Amino acid sequence: MSLVCVDDLSISYGSKTVLSHVSLSVELGEIVTIVGPNGSGKTSLLRSIIGAVNPARGRVTRRSDLRLGYVPQRLHIDPTLPMTVARFLALPDGVARTNIDGALAQAGVPNLSDAQMSRLSGGQFQRVLLARALIGKPQLLLLDEATQGLDQPGSAAFYRQIETVRRESGCAVLMISHELHVVMSASDRVICLNGHVCCEGTPEVVASAPEYRALFGSGTMGALALYRHDHDHGHDDEHCAGHGHDHPHDHMETAE
Ligand SMILES: Nc1ncnc2c1ncn2[C@@H]1O[C@H](COP(=O)(O)OP(=O)(O)OP(=O)(O)O)[C@@H](O)[C@H]1O
């Protein structure tokens, strides 16, 4: 059975309909990415999946006993408030230290537990939010523009971490991103949303779909072409955070 099934969903705020006739499902262990322009209803869709928005029409079915983890777009914490990462992760009900350490390790930041929240970099902060979502051992992880504010190498590193989490825990992932070119290699399936589902399929299929290009065609992504190759050289000559790679992955380059 699907973890989540969205069936003919429409969402309205007052007289304004922001989503119409959206149907999708998320299966065990898959990574599904939702892309779409600002205001296309991406967050509303995620919020309906967690039960925070009532549909005007259609329905959302979550598998009974489904454990959800949610990584928000951003979270404001008063910078004058002294609070360690471990304390933050223990809120609100108290979480065992071993669970906190385990979640931080899974999020790729094993040594941050005693750091002050106010001193974290943007990338570290998002990893801590990821750790917070992982504490409950979710079967479905929902990410709402979780890399907003990170630069491209930071975003790419974050998505690689998501792939590692999926591989190690087997959880499914449903994420929103503006950055199809960055999430490309991490996603099994992409859904392009603009008030309705414009197109969907593998990242390669969506990137070349006319509907996707009509939406993003005037931006950089429209000028991007995808190529895939295997290589094992380093990237010292590129702006790629100095990481070497020895695995197959996707690259984008301009088509011009
Ligand atoms: N609580 C609300 N009340 C009224 N209108 C809302 C509410 N939440 C969202 N909207 C409107 O619904 C539309 C879709 O918003 P939503 O946040 O779902 O889109 P989005 O694709 O996530 O946008 P963005 O990429 O800018 O975050 C927007 O026009 C927004 O102004």
Overall tally of domains: 2
- Report the structural category: alpha/beta
Provide the list of bound ligands, each named once.
adenosine-5'-triphosphate
The fraction of residues in strands falls at: 25-35%
Second-tier CATH architecture of the largest domain: 3-Layer(aba) Sandwich
**Overall radius of gyration:** 19 Å
Mean pLDDT: 83
Low-confidence parts, pLDDT < 50 over ≥5 residues? 220-256
Question: Which percent range fits the helix content?
Answer: 25-40%
EC number: 3.6.3.-
Organism: Octadecabacter antarcticus 307
Protein name: Zinc ABC transporter ATP-binding protein ZnuC
Keywords: ATP-binding, Cell membrane, Hydrolase, Ion transport, Membrane, Nucleotide-binding, Translocase, Transport, Zinc, Zinc transport
